[in-house]
Specification:
single chain, 172 residues, mainly alpha, 5 helices, elongated
Length: 172
């Protein structure tokens, strides 16, 4: 009986990692994009904020979204899983809204040019064209991956059936 109890306890405490296979590649790309967006937005805000303050502020927001999404994809548990969904959904909405505005009404963002490789380009302008459309495709892949990798239900400590004091000495 003690061997069975230990086996049950070991099975319930072993957790399958959520970050395997394609998930590692997804997290790597998110991490790289987080670094790229952070570097670009910090430089733009320091060097030329007056040129397009709305666009560069949104670029900084995108960097924060990528950082939080990267952490949320790595961290285990239901709360981080939900944070990943929220940040990745926000990312997709941001890419679509900012991408569309940068093409149809760039003046709303304070942009004077829609050149995806120009001085005023941001990570989400023209749907991320300056980043090879990775900002447009990545949230879709992230959502697909999240939908197939839901967190494992936390069973908590293993439940060991109580032993009756009367059958302690009665082992046959």
């Amino acid at each position: 009986m003690p061997d069975q109890t230990n086996a049950v306890r070991q099975q319930t405490t072993i957790k399958r990692p959520r970050v395997t296979g394609v998930g590692r590649l997804l997290i790597l790309v998110y991490g790289i994009l987080a670094l790229a967006a952070t570097g670009r937005s910090v430089f733009q805000i320091i060097d030329r904020f007056s040129e397009a303050p709305v666009a560069f502020t949104l670029s900084g927001l995108a960097a924060v979204v990528y950082i939080v999404a990267t952490i949320a994809l790595i961290a285990p548990g239901h709360v981080w899983y939900r944070v990943a969904w929220i940040t990745i959904s926000f990312e997709l909405a941001g890419v679509l809204v900012i991408g569309t505005l940068s093409l149809v009404a760039p003046e709303v963002l304070g942009l004077t040019s829609i050149d995806p490789f120009g001085r005023q380009a941001t990570v989400w302008s023209v749907y991320g064209m300056g980043y090879l459309f990775i900002p447009l495709v990545l949230p879709i892949l992230g959502m697909l991956w999240l939908s197939k990798h839901k967190p494992i239900a936390d069973a908590g400590p293993a439940q060991v059936p109580p032993t009756d004091a009367s059958d302690v000495g009665d082992r046959s």
